Fold each of these.
Amino acid sequence: MRKGLRAVLAGAAVVCAVALVYPPLYARYAWWQAQRAAESFAFDVARSWLDWCLKYWPQDGAVHFFYARVARRMGDHVTARKHLRWARRYGYRPERLDLEYKLLQVQGGASHFAGPVVAGLLPHFPNDEVEILEALAHGYIRDGFFPEAHHWATMWTERHPHMWQAWFVRGIVYERGLRFALAAEMYTKVLQLDPEQHDARLSLAELLTKAGRWSEAREQIEVYLQKRPHDASAWVTCARCCQALRDYDQALAILERVLQQKPDHAQALWLRGQIELDMGRPAQQALPWLEKALAADPNNMDILEMTARVVQELGRSAEAQKYLERKKAIEADRRRMEAILKELAEEVGGPAVSPARSAELCYEAGQILVRLGQDEQAYRWLASALQLRPDYEQAQKLFEEVKARLFGSGSNTVRPAP
């Protein structure tokens, strides 16, 4: 054991000595490590190594280009554009810069315009195939174009079946399209390829709860929590499994810890109130928990329904009716949202939905999400409607209102252009 530790320390000492005495050699080592990290999708690690590379090679166009690509894949498009400008200034290859700018467009809210262009470039950049397929799948998911997202995610899994990332993205497509059984299959495949992919395990656990498979869900969420013990929402999911399995003591112990850290966690408060009722305690003991939950999440149908039930038991019929009417309106919006998602997803393997119809559906989805208080999601759906139909005045008006709420009335954020 001591010999092994000495060997590790000696290796670290050699690396530090090289960094101090011969920076060019260490910069090449950092460049190699950055490439390895990016190949493994460890983009935060790759970025750290690239920071070192730029200390020694600040005018290297290839380094700036690679930094831009890593930043884009992390979702940091501002940094990506900055380094692309530096790469162009230092003479990096124009055709690759052009490709990367187009990938930025695809992932930045202009997939309807840039996606077909990038798809046409795929045969010309065989060494960038993974990056292109990844950008197309993520871009179409972001903009709510599920048939296109399904097409490119499926191609990614077919051409690179060993990559868990491809199966994970395909799972996201199925989950967003409300095809939960298929999504669960994809996440299971991810875990077969790499059991350490914790996001896939969490997604699988949540889908198992939707299917009422509580024992399996609890098993998956407990494994997840061993690796990520500070995820409050995952602990609430675990408590929900315990409650469904009638392990109330464990559920209450979990919720107590969560609410100590996050006293306004709506799902934890709701579940705490529900357990009071499950254990046969008086309605007035459950009501304070539910009122706190409703204050934290006023559009949650489960919370509204249970609060209505409790206040009805307490003889407050008018108040109960108010909650039920609110729940009914939200329920109608949710059903309509599911119908929109299904219609957009039905194009997979079926007849194509026209761009005009898709724009109407995206606009309607934006309206629903605004009513539900979900402006960030509404912003994306409305942006997608305007990609499909730039002259859509109603969508443009609502888009501007949402943009003002999100970014301020003086924001210069504009709708992504082709």
Note: The CA atoms of residues 299 and 372 lie 6 Å apart.
Amino acid sequence: MGKVTRCLPGKWGYVLMVIGISAVFGLWWFLFPGYGSQQEDRGGRGKNGGESKEQGQESLFSADIPDLGLEDIQEFLNRQYGEGKVSFSAMMEELVKGNFREAKETVFRTFWESFLEEMGGSIGLLGQAAVLGILGAVFAQAAAVFPSSRIAEIGFFITYLLTFTCLTASFFTSVETAGRVVENVLDFMKVLLPSFFLAVAFAGGSISSAALYSTVVGGVSGAQFLCGKVLLPLIKVYVLLVLAGNISREVFVRRLTDGLEKGVRWSLKTMVGIFLGLQMVQTMILPFADSVKRAGVQKVVSAIPGIGAGAEAILQVTMGTGVLIKNTIGGAAVLLLVLLAAGPVAKLCFFLILYQGAAALMEPVCDKRITACAEGMAKAHLLLLHLVIAVICLFALSLGIICASTNAVYFGG
């Protein structure tokens, strides 16, 4: 006891002790806001005895971190898939437990339902276009016995206009599908970003959270404008030019359609490259600034006489918990991004293969202009597929980069 008194002489020792204890409690209150009320709620639930241990584990994230705004994400999922069919908190629980089987079954089940729903209204239009193509080929062969008359040409124009109508209606359904999935992905990112970056700040990355949040929000706005207002209308124009340009035997818009196709592809590559490049530059610097700040705070806390070691351990555990929550939210968000796009992407792939196969099968028997139309529709579906996949990869890779880079705050301490 004498040694302790000599280490903390007089009233200054007690002052330092009070300051240290106040600093620890202040840090605890800052890192765990609402912790006391949560404990009271848990005590009340324990007195009522209304929940089992397993149910308590399933509601771990909703009970322990209510201020992250996960309820907004759940409301979005309820609007998309129905009440309670897909649970964001339950998916996070399964990822934390390492039970990827449940998450995989949820993804595949929802994908299959989405795929069947997407395919429901488009098979009829495709069947009509296929029947018209076959009838056009039969009519053209039958009219070939009248080489000097205009019967064959008139019959071709009638068949072509009917095929034009069916193909246009079918493709606009695909455009609506692509536009809807892009809009859903962007809406999901809007409800996800506040919760995700709050978790990044909770894990000690306050500087990274503030800077990267503005970058990702800007990326969402830019993708929404570029894809919804520029690229989707350009793809519609591309299809109309392909169908109108093949009505005559001489193709007069080939270079224009090729230019539109290249322009859409280059725009998507430029959007992804600029956004991810800017984010890579930020993540090379900002997480290490947070790491230096956190290391300084940790050294100051560890230097508090008497309680420094315990306070440092509490700080370390707190940061580890924040990193786990952040990475779990990011992993669940990537799975949901894939889930949102899986059905529409499968539909676009199906139509792409179908149109390409139809062009190959019709080439020996049909007029080359109808074959060119089928091939142009396949290219247009490929552009839609590139657009949807580019948006998904843009934000999935962004979340992965942020989660991986901000881990430096924890490991750097």
Note: DSSP finds 16 helices and no strands in the chain.
Amino acid sequence: MDAMLVQMSVSASLIIAAALCIRALALYSLPKRVFQLLWGIAVVRLLLPFRVPCRFSFYTVLSLLEAPGTQTMAGEAAGISALWRPPGIQAIEMETYAKYYGAPPSAAEWVWILGVLSCAAFFLAAYIRGRKRFVSSMPVEQEMAALQPVPLRRQVQIRQTDRAATPLTYGIFRPVILFPMGTDWADQKNRHALIHEYMHIKHWDALAKLVLAAAACVHWFNPLVWFMYCMANRDMELACDEAALKILGADAKGAYALTLIAFEEAKGQRFPIASHFSKSAAEERVKAIMKTRAPSKWAAIAGILIVLILTISFATSAMDPNEAILKAQTGASGRELRYLRSIFADFGIQAASISPSDNPITQGMDETCSAAFDVQSTEGLKYFLLLRREDQSFRALLDHENKVLYGLVDTATLPQYFN
């Protein structure tokens, strides 16, 4: 399994754990949209392989607390040995090199791929099964303007079916709200449910559920991601309850809670990609409805600060002073820069020691072949670094006797050194 994927999953797990703690402590104090933002940060970290160094990151603090030298090792201790490979290629173990430049999937990677496909098939089958169940739904004959509780830019269809026991919403760009057949629109509880479902559409919850499902598929091996999937769905319902009560007024809390209980008793089979009026744990929702007060200005400010602190602390990466030096000296970036940092860590090389080299070994190479640099380890050992000049990709690391320790060198162009 790719190390970057595991790193993303571990980093997101810390965000999820922090969000769960905040949720447990402040569920009835903060605006419910705050928790959705926290889950959003975790999802972004799970799906986007980005790296944003920050001096205030949790990982920067860890790197400062770590004992010096614990991340470095000598080449011989790492089990690195020079090998001769014809025609004229001297090389070493290329496991890390292959990791960055292409290698067949390992057994663990095949297991991960199988897990991703299986989870994706489950969600897709659930969606298709739900759409087939509701394809026979009938449009509501009542005037739409009379039913629409809030204005929306997207056109919303309100339909009825005998295959749904409780109201639900599905669809992203052409959303549909389904009610049980024979719904009495004069009934107060159906009015409550309609407003709730409109809030799902207004908040783009169908799209959010799709992204959550994608994160769960990619990180199926992480139980915290599945827990986040469940809790994020709950918080969607809580946020829609809160938004609906803003329209209905605080005096409607009791009646709204009774509506929730009524639909909870009538609920049937779930539609995993849809938003249900009674999707979440009813007890938690009733408590939230009755306990939650209108969010104050200070609660909103506290929520914003929590989101910012969590983002800066756990969604960023450790500051690496060596990275800026390497980028300035070599011009490398992205994958090549990560690869150089890995090699420097393995050999205990100090990035601050890098400087252009006049090593005579480069005299036998053409101008497009290599850029050469002298580097030195924390123990004072001197090394010679070769990069491909045209794209600054790593070629080889040599010792002070010009013996290849790591990488590949075309010895055909340098017979005076390798014969």
Note: Residues 67-97, 412-419 have pLDDT under 50 and may be disordered.
Amino acid sequence: MNIYVELITVITEIFLTCFFFYKCLPLTSIPYIEIIIYYATYALTLAIGTLFLSIIPRITLIVAVLLIGNHLLLHIPYSKLVYTIILFFTSAIIADILCAITLPAMGMQYEMMANTDTGRILYNSCSKIIHLIILLIIISLIEVKDEHIFSIRIIPLIICHIATFFAFDVNYHYLTNGGSLTKVTISSLCLLYINIMLCIYFEYLRLNHEKHEKDVLIAQQLKINNKFYTDMLSRQEETRALWHDIKKYTLAVEALVADNQINKARDEFQNIESAYEKIKYTVDSGNSIIDGILNHEINLAKNNNITINLNIWIDNNFSIDATDLYIIIGNTIDNAIEACSNIKDTEKRIINISLTQKEHLLLYEVNNPYIPDIKIHSKKPFHGYGLTNVRNCVERNNGTMTIDKTNDIFSISFILNV
């Protein structure tokens, strides 16, 4: 056993473990120093197990450290940890089996894989790359439910990893034809390093893309908030003007009725009604974020001849992130407006919105008529995120989402912890 070859294997195994557990478990909520200490302990355990223990005691020790360490560090139930650890080691076993089948098929002899340092390096490198491919597929299936997004994200990486196998094959044939052992070893390690860096780079790109999406949402939210405050100031002026003129309107109507000028009195009532119409669609729940979103949506609905009925009873403060509120409320009402816009009978274009708070629970419901056979394709900002992101926001806030379609009425309801 070459200690350097085995240590390289241990380092690669640590990377794969960190990568998989970081994606599957909430490590970001823990101070980095604690994470470093935990994985340093895991690395020491892995090194001791690889160098000094047989297979069964080694796996037992590693599983025990992962199970106890993650439970103490992250306070995650053992049931979930057991599932994650089993998934990791099962995929590792599958990777070893696939590697043991693939390398001999490419011409490498079993004796070389088992008894030579270069064979061990080639075998370990191929095995870890196969394991990395399997982990990437598992993580992508867990994170992404949209098949199109899944294909875009995972296919380029898999192609890179598959191409690496051909490079290993070239290395092997180069070695068997009298090539330099040192060059083959360095080349194999470089290939492994390149594949690891590719995964890190793709993860960096993904995080940047998510940050960009969130920035776009925040910018849109700020735009709506600015419009809300501008509209609020304007409506306050209109309200003050209305109250200032209400006595004048009342005296005018009384004079016209006393003079038996009923038609002119009716005209004055219409003037009062018109003035009231300008301010009656203002939402003032006490929460500026919700007010901004709802006032924005009410204006959109009004422009499409859609009536919105509101039932709001909430406190001023929430623990829910403003962006999550923007995605959940804005997206669902936008969808309702689009659905109603396809209905020809304007009298049936009615959206009912209920937003009530009961202690630490926020109950939110939207229902509207819709035409079942028509699909909605919108270019509005909210729609880029779809119900998948709405569902993610709900789950992030420990809530539930329910969809019902009965008698051509689409109803979506949420229960959120606030």
Note: The chain has a mean pLDDT of 77.
